[in-house]
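Model it.
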Amino acid sequence: KVVKIPVRKGDRLSSGDIVVVLEAMKMQSNYKVTSDCTVRDILVNEEDSVNANQVLIVLDIIKED
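Modeled.
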């Protein structure tokens, strides 16, 4: 189940930022990004039940030149 989505479409995220909080079997897990990116789209809402391998959020990686 999606507990919290602390980001919005268009947000710029840095490596280590939390992008979504999920709950499974009464345990909450924070999912973080591993590189700088922007949020392109959010495909779920808070309180939604989700399946394994379901895409929750679409991110665009920021490539520094």
